[in-house]
Specification:
The protein is an alpha+beta fold and 133 residues long. The protein folds into 2 domains: 36 residues; 94 residues, Purple acid phosphatase-like, N-terminal (Immunoglobulin-like, Sandwich). Helices cover 20% and strands 38% of the residues. The chain is elongated. The N and C termini lie far apart (81 Å).
Length: 133
């Protein structure tokens, strides 16, 4: 009887350790979460800037492989981008942010935030000017 209990506890412990190790490795692999979805699927691509639908506005669009939350941080100083433009689609693959009341003579800097990850040009904010569009 004691041998059966000992074997059962040994097998149960081995199974528990194996499951814990798999979850630990899966969670800590860069770019993957516990459920195997890749953060790479939320990397923005095909980023376009165009004049917005209203005067003194700009439209920033991008695409992601998976449905992701997105917004744009922007400002006049690349070290202080305190303004936010929210994606018109709450969670999607096709993203669009229209920023209004842009000065035509100023240069603006922006970063795209996609599923809590910030994207620019190798960590440097992108820039735009309304007069150059």
């Amino acid at each position: 009887m004691k041998i059966k209990i000992f074997m059962f506890l040994g097998i149960f412990s081995l199974l528990l350790i194996s499951v814990s190790a798999v979850l630990l490795v899966t969670k800590n692999v860069s770019g993957f979460d516990m459920f195997g979805s890749s953060k790479v699927d939320c990397v923005p691509y095909n980023v376009f800037l165009e004049k917005g639908s209203k005067d003194y506005s700009i439209k920033i669009t991008w695409v992601t492989k998976a449905k992701c939350f997105g917004f744009v941080q922007y400002g006049l100083d690349q070290k202080s981008m305190e303004m936010i433009g929210v994606d018109s689609n709450s969670k999607s693959k096709e993203h669009s942010v229209e920023i209004e009341k842009i000065s035509s003579s100023e240069k603006y800097f922006f970063l795209i935030n996609s599923d809590n990850q910030t994207y620019g040009n190798n960590g440097v904010p992108l820039e735009f000017s309304l007069k150059n569009l």
